[in-house]
Amino acid sequence: MSGGVDSSVAALMLAKEDYDLSAVYMRNWDTRDESGSDKGCEWEKDWEDVQRVCKVLDIPVTMVDLSKEYWNKVFEPSLRLWEQGRTPNTDVWCNREIKFGALLERLPGSTEHTKPWLATGHYARKVWSHHLTGPPRPKLVRPADRHKDQSYYLSSITEDGLRRAMFPLHNLQKPEVRELARKYNLHNAERPDSVGICFVGERGKFKDFLAGYIPQNSGSIVDKISGKVLGQHTGLWNYTIGEGARLPGMPARMTVSEKDTTTNTVYVVPGTTHDKLFSDVLSITGFQWIWKDAPPPELDSDSGYRVQVMHRYRMKATPATIRRLPDGNLQIWSDKPEHAVTPGQVAAVYDGDWCLGCGLITSTARSFPL
């Protein structure tokens, strides 16, 4: 449980069933690492909300401190990507490494012979695929509420983690979740959805937060069309492809189109629909198939494997072809050019509603003429 309405209603639904149920709250960030004090920590309010809900539901609750695991497995690897000018998605890796990784090993009631299930407030669905030989295998699929669909954030989960997962909200729409919270007098029924990165919280701008961990590395901001230097930046991590560059005195909005780590240069183009903001070839590394031993055989064929791809949360999945390269990495060819595809982000691959896994976007290219 996070303190939000989604995980609270997930707990509510399970509390009405015949489960041996307990709640767990993950503490993933230790502010003492920065300030030497816990005063004013973001997690304190969340922990208080979790305890209030559990008291209403009459279920026991435990806090598990995973701040060390989060630092080592999510935050530090993400820092390296930010330093390289990429834009990582920490939520995807947190679900794999922490929530359905480290937490699973430390759940209350875990023994050598007993492995508890883990239910979350994610909007996602799990179904079982039955085979003539071997046990059933879990499949991650899209939920009823397509607007809140969080299968993208779960796309790096392992099969073992998915096997023990439960998603009680899979068949509900968000308004129905809030209505259930009101009906059962949960105090957080109207709590806004959380946005942003969990470890930044309310402490100010994200760029200011990162500046405390990454040394300044100044470079030029260059007009990609004219080659003219328009300004200076203090670090590639302050810019995301597709976002406005905020350059004063320009007659038109300038949008980040590229970040060159070799020359430490941010390139910009005028407007938001310039051709240089679009690409249709994505190079992918470290692809994690949820069924690790069963990647589609068509990957190695000349025609490739037909899929749908999401390279950001809540985008409409785009039809594409995926192929495996001789070096083992993957390449995705979209049927149409995609806007502002960002290296460092995750490309999640779907077969219809079935999420097959994801990988890290390392670079993009255009196969079409400008």
Automatic annotation (TrEMBL):
Any single biological process term in GO: tRNA wobble position uridine thiolation
Enzyme Commission (EC) number: 2.8.1.14
Pfam families the UniProt entry points to: tRNA_Me_trans, tRNA_Me_trans_C, tRNA_Me_trans_M
Gene Ontology cellular-component terms listed: mitochondrion
InterPro entries in UniProt: MnmA-like, MnmA-like_C, MnmA-like_central, MnmA-like_central_sf, Rossmann-like_a/b/a_fold
Top EC class of this enzyme: transferase
Catalytic activity from the UniProt record: 5-taurinomethyluridine(34) in tRNA + S-sulfanyl-L-cysteinyl-[protein] + AH2 + ATP = 5-taurinomethyl-2-thiouridine(34) in tRNA + L-cysteinyl-[protein] + A + AMP + diphosphate + H(+)
Keywords: ATP-binding, Disulfide bond, Nucleotide-binding, RNA-binding, Transferase, tRNA processing, tRNA-binding
Annotated ranges, domain tRNA-specific 2-thiouridylase MnmA-like C-terminal: 282-361
Domain tRNA-specific 2-thiouridylase MnmA-like central: 207-269
Domain of life, per lineage: Eukaryota
GO molecular function: ATP binding; sulfurtransferase activity; tRNA binding
PANTHER family linked: MITOCHONDRIAL TRNA-SPECIFIC 2-THIOURIDYLASE 1 (PTHR11933:SF5), TRNA 5-METHYLAMINOMETHYL-2-THIOURIDYLATE -METHYLTRANSFERASE (PTHR11933)
Functional description taken from the UniProt entry: Catalyzes the 2-thiolation of uridine at the wobble position (U34) of mitochondrial tRNA(Lys), tRNA(Glu) and tRNA(Gln). Required for the formation of 5-taurinomethyl-2-thiouridine (tm5s2U) of mitochondrial tRNA(Lys), tRNA(Glu), and tRNA(Gln) at the wobble position. ATP is required to activate the C2 atom of the wobble base.
Family statement drawn from the similarity comment of this UniProt entry: Belongs to the MnmA/TRMU family.
Name the record gives this protein: tRNA-5-taurinomethyluridine 2-sulfurtransferase
